[in-house]
Amino acid sequence: SPAIADIDGDGKNEVVACSRDGHIYAFDSNGDVEWEYSIGATIDSSPAIADIDGGGVEIIVGSDDGSIYVLGGPLPPKTPERPTGPTEIEYGKSYEYHTYTKDPIYKEVRYVFSWGDGKEDTTNCVDPKEGASCSHSWTKGKGKLFLYILRCKEKEYEVKCKAVACDPNTGLESGWSEELIVTAKSKSFYCFHSLWLLQWLLDHLPPLHKSSENGGDQDE
């Protein structure tokens, strides 16, 4: 069962819950995930919350590997809101996206934007509540070559972000935000493979016949 306590000192209670896959989750009063942490082992107990050493609350859980884990000290930043920005884009053009997090602890965080195409960008340190914006331009990759007519399709990208504490002594980071689905619109035309087109022409053009030198057979 979950435990309820103010674990970050903001005057509001959080709900701490565990899963058997080894993750500990902290939820705010709206039910949003503030942070998550994996201990790398199956958790067999409900979380307990207490101030063990007088330095702030700790979270205690037991696992099936025979260990008791105590989470204390600095907490990671809260998970940012889902990025906002255009949801339909064209290749080669730059688009701007924005996010923020309601973090009561950190005065500055960096935001890491993941664009869904294998690329990421990191912002400078900013006030987490003001958030940050970042721009990106998607590039259309070279598709596979087909020997038939291929209808050009739309491609979707998942844009998400996370917050990283600027404090060099911690370097803690939040979980990834909810994804924003961005669709790259393709032009409405059919893609032809040149070899297929050449083969089609050879199959459909009338054959070329070589005329005889004497102009063909003549009646005697």
What report would you give on this structure?
The protein has 220 residues and is mainly β. The protein folds into 2 domains: 2-71, Thrombin, subunit H, CATH 2.40.10.480; 88-188, Immunoglobulins (Immunoglobulin-like). Helix content is 5%, strand content 34%. The strands form 5 sheets. It has a 5-stranded mixed beta sheet, with no helix packed on it. A hairpin with a 4-residue loop joins strand 2 and strand 3. The N and C termini lie far apart (109 Å). Residues 143-151 and 188-195 have low confidence and may be disordered.
Order of helices and strands: EEEEEEEEEEEEEEEEH
CATH level 1 name of the largest domain? Mainly Beta
Radius of gyration: 30 Å
- Overall pLDDT confidence: 79
Which strands sit side by side, in order, in the main sheet? 8-15-14-10-11
Largest sheet: 5 strands, mixed
What's the β-strand tally? 16
Q: Tell me the fraction of residues in β-strands, as a range.
A: 25-35%
Name the CATH superfamily classification of the largest domain.
Immunoglobulins
Portion of residues in helices? under 10%
How many domains in all?
Answer: 2
By secondary-structure content and strand pairing, the structural class works out as mainly beta
CATH architecture of the largest domain: Sandwich
Gross morphology is elongated
Q: Provide the low-confidence segments as ranges.
A: 143-151, 188-195
